Amino acid sequence: MVAWLSIFMGTVLLLSAVSLWWNFQYLLHHKKHGDSLGNAYLMLQKRITSAHMGDASLSYFSNAELEEIEKLTTVVSMAKVVQGRFPAWIRLQGKLDFSSDVFLTSVPDAFIDKKPDSWFWMQQSREVPLILPSEFIHLYNYGFALSRGLPQLSENSIKALHFDLIVGTPETQETYTAVVAGFSDRITAALVPQSFMDFANERYAPFSPEQISRVMVEVKDPSDAAFVDFMKAHDYTFNEEYLQWNKLRRVAEIVSAATGVLAFLLLGVSVLVLVLFIELTISRSRNALEMLLWNGYTPSFLQRFFLRQFLPFALSAHLAGTVIVMLLQYLAHQNAPSLSLELPEFIGWPVIIASILCLAYFSFSIYRAVIRSVKV
Amino acid sequence: MSVFYLKTMNLILRNLVPHPFKDTILPNSSDIWMRDLFLRKGEHILIQAPSGTGKTTLMHMLYGLRKDFAGELLWGDYAFQDIQPAQLASLRASYISIVFQDIRLFPELTAWENIEIKRFLTNTMPTERVEDMLARLSIFHKKDSIVSKLSQGEKQRVAIIKALVQPFDWLLMDEPFSHLDSQNKEKAAALVSEIVSHYKAGILLADLDKNQYFRYHKILYL
Description:
Chain A is an alpha+beta fold. In chain A, 53% of the residues lie in helices and 16% in strands.
């Protein structure tokens, strides 16, 4: 009974640890949640100092600087933030008199947190989708609208509006229809699709070279000491709120890893108990075993006999442990929404692989113990 | 079950000396120790030996229970010193059978179960035949009795039947009738002779004194 329980507990703990780690990875990397727990996306730029005021070129990244950033170990990917090199402004179509200069920006689609379905632009199309910063609505609703007596607007009502987007110098000026396709919590700029930006820069600012003053980087851990030191050394700035959150994430990762280590230790103990149990059982049957060998039974026949006894024993404990972990996963799936999280209903493949490996380890330990104990 | 096949199950002993006896055995003092012997399958050999001269040691050496000896011991082409566990098991299941002096049955099992353990290995003897053997040795009524409850004589008869329910080329017997009265000795010897003849097997019987249980081709003094 002790041996059965130890295998059962060892299995439950090990698979729970793997399951914990896997659920954590799921939360970190599952795209559906806007990566709220995943890799951090940072907008990097050079700190503006008095020196920059007289020389805008100091704000631009050189190719060497960009390569240096990309080589940092915590940086997963990097994208240039392409800015419109042409004048642009928008004007609300209809009776409402609203117009504003805009500064258009584009980033690769992979860096957009909530990419709308309509996020594409094809040449010759006169309609251009826009993504605005979520903060923009707050500024408008709680700033402009209230102070100037303008109507407050919901996200959906803004999406229903159509704007004239006027781009280019007076000589090349053209008007497109702009529609707000979505809002971004990550990027604080008015975004247009990359294809439109490339086209517009080529068409309306053909003689203005591309210069990069901001880059977006996807980083595993913005609180990584080497990364922070690099940022400080080069006087680059980014949203440092990420630092605090990522410390919490590190703690969660350490807890997950520590649980795994504990589980491995317990698994080791459970295998030890199992092996001792097998050896004790076989040792108790030593006389009978010797008699059977004298009678002409082969060691392999007797080994198979013991394997048939012990393997189902270990298998039942292991399966019971696996079922418990599956139930725990189901319960986690049921209760996760109350924490505004979503977890899968079924255990993940790493848990299944761990379960198979665990079973293989038990089987191998049993096999070795039996072979070692049943000798001529 | 059989993992090898032996064409000629002759027994060859070359200069055999058990380690515990190496200081006490003198050259030419024994017909077996420190001698070269060739025993042909089918021969009936009586090994006569006073107590303490290594009778049981010899039987255990011949059955592969101990390897603490110098010299060579070959069953057919197989030297016992080098034999593999599976080959030894096969030899015991199909080529050599034994009646131990100390009987060696499972005390917690019945007489029938003890015999079945042996019969199961080769399944060459029908159960009716085994029941007939039990009847011939007057222990059929003890068939389902736990061995530990049997008398020594009954146990010895169970052990003899157990040795006979497998095919063999040689039957080793170490004082096989020591707990039997003269009537049961005759019955047991007759049964053994019958089965040995059936298999055209050899007999190696070790005992303290001369006896007439079988027609011996050789008598060797240990």
